[in-house]
Design brief:
The chain is α/β, with parallel strands linked by helices. It is built from 15 helices and 17 strands. The chain has two domains: about 280 residues, Mur-like, catalytic domain (UDP-N-acetylmuramoyl-L-alanine:D-glutamate ligase, 3-Layer(aba) Sandwich), CATH 3.40.1190.10; about 130 residues, Protein-Tyrosine Phosphatase, Chain A, CATH 3.90.190.
């Protein structure tokens, strides 16, 4: 497992918390009771100017990162609470794109645990960190607080937080043991980020959108849909630069120029800009010089191998997110095949995700995960062999990385944030002067 000095320092506090992110229970064993009780003393307005919750199956982090960058460009103070973290727990708390200090997190966690003790509450890891984020943003008097959903929506701790607006990126099959076995069932869980009487934006489609629209009507929320109420038109690419016009629900039209864009970023920028313009209608949005989103590790991060060759790191682990990785690889390196270092948690649809990678892969190296319950790499290798793909199993991540670095192909690591984060740290150590 990665050595995280911040988590080591916080261990006496974190050890008091049940961490379901790592233990991965096969059914939901939490609700909103604890989170609501811990947040209630902060009042209906926890102390930040505006708050946005971002849910969905994929792209949540990118939307949060764009929201923060847009706020910073407009001269506002923004804080973002993100999950999971990749290399250090500090990544979960961002202020103007920079991490909160270990001292800051420790101080907030102590307050949360003291309150939990007074209320006889045994908080989970995610609940405690969520409330710590609310307190930290209140103490900093942020103009915009951004909260990324951890899992689902209906019972996610971030849903206990009072909001100004919400964003639901889209819905696909994921966490089916907890959220449901169909897209409609999962959408019904995620739709709860759309709050009663609130305003929300979504890029959902098909059955998922129908469920979300019905929920919005039932709770009296205003829902804006990308492609219906919010439009990117006249879109074009020049290399990796993206240009378009964004038509907002208010009727405003904004020119968009996004340099060095990933293929999935324009949609994320549109959702973020739509919500930001609704919350701050008096502020100018300069999307003709759109800011790059706050840098988040392992979101199609192009790192360097020790020999200087590109090594793409991405925590993608759902069918659509892995398909987006494959599409971006084809767009940036159209004539190159990749050697893919892959590992998966036990509850993921890795067969469907790997199917999207087969056309761009020269070979696969399968490895075990550390820090969570992983799928047996031999099972994945047997499935790949049945598809006619070259593959090998190397259970040690450092040794698996060594094998990948020997390949003359484009190098890619994906399937899990746990794996991508560990490989990222190993690469940094090997390329450090």
């Amino acid at each position: 497992m990665l050595h995280d000095p911040a988590a080591e320092r916080l261990a006496p506090l974190l050890s008091q918390l049940e961490n379901y992110e790592r233990s991965r229970p096969d059914k939901r064993v939490w609700d909103l009771v604890n989170a609501k009780a811990l947040i209630a003393p902060l009042g209906a307005d926890p102390g930040h100017g505006a708050a946005i919750q971002v849910g969905g199956s994929k792209g949540k982090g990118t939307v949060c990162a764009f929201l923060g960058a847009l706020a910073q460009q407009a001269g506002l103070r923004a804080g973002a609470y993100l999950s999971p973290h990749v290399t250090t727990i500090l990544e979960r708390f961002l202020f103007d794109g920079a991490t909160l200090s270990t001292d800051g997190i420790e101080a907030q966690l102590r307050v949360v645990l003291q309150r939990a003790d007074r209320l006889s509450i045994r908080a989970t890891f995610f609940e405690a960190l969520t409330v710590a984020a609310v307190q930290a943003f209140a103490a900093a008097r942020t103009d915009l607080a951004i909260y990324e959903v951890g899992l689902g929506g209906r019972f996610d701790a971030t849903t206990a937080i009072p909001l100004s607006a919400s964003i639901l990126t889209g819905v696909e099959l994921e966490h089916m043991n907890v959220l449901g076995s169909t897209v409609s069932a999962i959408a019904a869980e995620k739709a709860w980020v759309v709050r009663a009487g609130g305003v929300a934006f979504t890029a959902a489609r098909g059955d998922a959108l129908a469920v979300i629209e019905r929920h919005a009507r039932e709770v009296g929320a205003t829902l804006y849909v990308l492609g219906t109420d919010l439009h990117l038109v006249d879109a074009s690419w020049s290399g990796t630069e993206y240009r378009a016009r964004l038509l907002l629900p208010s009727g405003r039209e904004l020119k968009v120029r996004l340099p060095d864009a990933r293929g999935y970023e324009p949609q994320a920028l549109a959702l973020a800009a739509g919500a930001f313009a609704t919350l701050f209608p008096h502020l100018e949005l300069h999307l003709d010089q759109a800011p790059r989103p706050w840098a988040l590790p392992c979101r199609f991060e192009v790192a360097a191998s020790p020999d200087g060759a590109a090594f793409v790191l991405d925590g993608a682990h759902t069918e659509q997110s892995l398909a987006a990785v494959a599409e971006e690889l084809r767009r940036r390196w159209p004539d190159r095949k990749a050697v893919v270092l892959f590992g998966s948690a036990v509850d993921k649809r890795w067969r469907q995700g790997l199917s999207a990678l087969l056309p761009i892969a020269d070979s696969f190296v399968l490895t075990e995960l550390t820090g969570t319950v992983g799928e047996d790499p031999k099972v994945i290798a047997d499935w790949l062999a049945a598809q006619g793909s070259a593959q090998t199993v190397i259970r040690s991540i450092p040794e698996a990385l060594d094998a990948v670095l020997k390949a003359p192909c484009l190098r890619v690591c994906c399937g899990s944030f746990y794996l991508a984060g560990e490989v990222r740290a190993l690469l940094a150590a090997r390329t450090r002067p």
